[in-house]
Amino acid sequence: MTLDLKNCKNCGRAYQYDGNAFCKRCRQDSEEEYKRVKEYLYDNPGASVGEVSEETEVSEKKILKFLREGRLEIKDENNFFLDCERCGVGIKSGRFCDKCTHEMANEFRSAATPKQKEEPKKPEKTKKSQRMYVDVRRKK
Description:
The structure is a single chain. The chain has a domain at 80-112. The chain contains five helices and four strands. It has helices at residues 24-43, 49-56, 60-69, 98-112, 133-139; strands spanning 5-7, 14-16, 82-83, 90-91. The strands form two sheets. It has a two-stranded antiparallel ribbon with strand order 1-2. α1 packs across α2. The longest helix has 20 residues, at 24-43.
């Protein structure tokens, strides 16, 4: 087993790579920020991103990241500020609207299923093709 070291994308510290782009400390910090945002939104539903950012001291970029990851969801219908990355319609959480998600799933499914190969058409048997090859050669 080899020791795979990488630098954390957030703080630049070296850490043993475990499939995540961030070190353990940065992941814990991010999780604490998520909990603060979640608790604030629980107590203050309908708060704007700027307000949540100001009160929790978590950057707006990070809050939008939580929304894009699907960890947070917009409850208020009037408060749409996320757009589907494919068609641009307003969404409450994630990256894509339900319609685009279904369309992409169907496209992936159709791309993943192997296409049936068409067998080459065999020439129809006629009286000439039923003859022996030698027979055809003699006529020429």
